[in-house]
Amino acid sequence: MGIKFITKSGDSNMARRFIYVIIVLVALHGSWIRAQGITQETFKLGKTLALLDAIYVDSVNIPSITEQMIVSTLRNLDPHSVYIPAKDVQEENEPLQGNFEGVGIQFNLLNDTIIIISPTPGGPSERVGIQAGDRIITIAGEKVTGVGMSTAGVQKRLRGPKGTTVVITVFRKGEKELLEFTITRDKIPVNSLDASYMVSDDVGYIKLSRFSEQTAQEFDQAVAKLRKEKMANLIIDLRGNSGGYMVPAVQIADQMLSGEELIVYLQGRHTSRQEYKSEPSGTLTRSRIAILIDEGSASASEILAGAVQDWDRGVIIGRRSFGKGLVQNRFSLPDGSEIRLTIARYYTPSGRSIQTPYNEGFDKYFQTYYSRYFDGELIHPDSLNLPDSLKAYTIPNKRVVYGGGGITPDIFIPIDTTFYSDYYRDLIRTSTLMGFIVGYTDQNRKNLLRKYKTFENFNSEFTFNKETMSELIAAGEKNKVSFNQAQYDTSVQEMQRVMKGLVARDLWDMNDYYRVVNEDDYAILRALSVINDTVLYGKLLGFRKE
Predict the structure, then answer these.
(1) For site-directed labelling of 319, which of 56, 79, 404, 446 has its Cα 20 to 30 A away?
(2) 103 and 116 inside one domain
(3) Annotated catalytic residue: which of 134, 294, 310, 312?
(4) Do 110 and 182 lie in a common domain?
């Protein structure tokens, strides 16, 4: 039995009573308490809080102090042991659980108006007839337009337990009266697979944004769909994927490896070595594989990339991954808050530790991205000088790979800054670009869908005209983003690509957004060329010697 403090705001009396109970129990039954794992240090902590509450000169918020003590303690242990207040637990867990309970719509806020971008296919809103372009006026009788409603406020009002109902009224263009809908809430999937499509006649592309409970299932479904389109080989995009659950990463690696091959192992002071191995029935064991990573790829992404690299099963392309190789377990506290405590470290099959050193402190550790940029690592591969002490070797072909934090790619792709400008940054920072595209799509939805019957038609024919770009510039000026011709010229091609992708997303889905923005992506093009060149592919993985 361990000590668990009550930390919910407003429960100070309960917290106070709990602390006093500790003191009394230790005083009267010290030997029994020690036998239950309550140490002298635990008693000191409880007594300190009791003294603060009982005799400190000013009034103190015991629950708040308790939370501060927990946060500070965990922060001084390692960068990934964290405390999550009860009010934030559900929000933190939803992306990893793969679903939430609500009405199933994607929406944007534009000029204090809630515009529905699309209902979730097959979800509760689509089932009752909600359409893209509808504007939500009231939720459960409460006016939600023109009142400064936030995105979080909309979500709070629309979400709720499965089976409960919520009544909304919407304005729909062409209708004289407001439309009322009663929506029965249901489980809504949170997809971790952003895109899957064919990039050439026999090469598929899959982008994963996180590793949730449903990721392996989504991946398998995408592979099955692509195989029907004649996919033989695969590019897996893990750029910006900060991880999540370990098991889905293991399950996906299993698809590429033969039987009884070690995928990852974890070990800690109180955690004996636990090994995860592949089974012999992988569906991608004969496919050529390329995995894209960058400085934003972490945790489960690194487990997958590390296993593929250590077994010479695919080419890793991009930039060195973040280096998050600490294993956390979740421990619930009485008020519904959680502690996620590091219990072990991840190691790749060759024995490499994934974790970046954190001995210089919390703040320094999370400046990793910026230090890599200023040190030149994101631009020049030669700037990364890893010592020989960090060398390891792949298992079949004994290629040199490196540990000491993150996965180092086989082919380096520098970060692309050719399109960057302060003007483009400010259009994004002020939400000018996003707001403009939401309005543009809303105003032109019917005409666009009438003109472009399919995404393929749209992708090959659609462009933004000068008048539309002038309207974007004017919208920027309205938001105090001063126009700069030279910077505009630097960024305009990339701006239009992203804008076109956002229109495609709002007209169809996220998959089509990536089909637009990935067209000239150098890392994808490089991966495609490597996969198609069997000689180069074999040389990079050590199967061909010269």
Answers:
(1) 79
(2) yes
(3) 310
(4) yes
Identify whether 86 is part of a domain.
no
- Report if residue 313 sits inside a domain: yes
- For the cut 90, the answer to whether the pLDDT of residue 17 exceeds it is no
Q: Is 310 one of the catalytic residues?
A: yes
Same-domain status, 400 and 495: no
Please tell me the predicted confidence (pLDDT) of residue 546: 60
Q: What is the mean pLDDT of the chain?
A: 88
Q: Does 85 map to a domain? A: no
SS3 of 34-90: HHCCCCHHHHHHHHHHHHHHHHCCCCCCHHHHHHHHHHHHHHCCCCCCEEECHHHHH
Residue 143 a catalytic site member: no
Query: Does residue 112 have an active-site annotation?
Result: no
Same domain, yes or no: 375 and 227: yes
Q: Are residues 285 and 407 in the same domain?
A: yes
Nearest-angstrom CA–CA distance, 286 and 258: 10
Cα separation, 185 vs 158, in Å, equals 8
Q: Can you give the residue range of the structural domain that contains 333?
A: 193-412
Which residue among 324, 337, 491, 512 is the active-site one? 324
- Residue labelled with tokens 């979740």: 330
The count of domains in the chain is: 4
Q: Which of 196, 287, 299, 301 is catalytic?
A: 299
Q: What is the pLDDT of residues 373-402, one digit of tens each?
A: 778 888 887 777 777 888 999 999 999 999
Same domain, 124 and 18: no
pLDDT score for 14:
52
* Inside any domain, residue 219: yes
Q: Which residues contact residue 209 at a Cβ distance below 8 angstroms, ignoring those fewer than 6 apart?
A: 192, 193, 194, 240, 241
Tens of pLDDT, residue by residue over 146-203, are 888 888 888 889 988 889 999 999 998 888 889 999 999 988 888 899 999 999 999 9
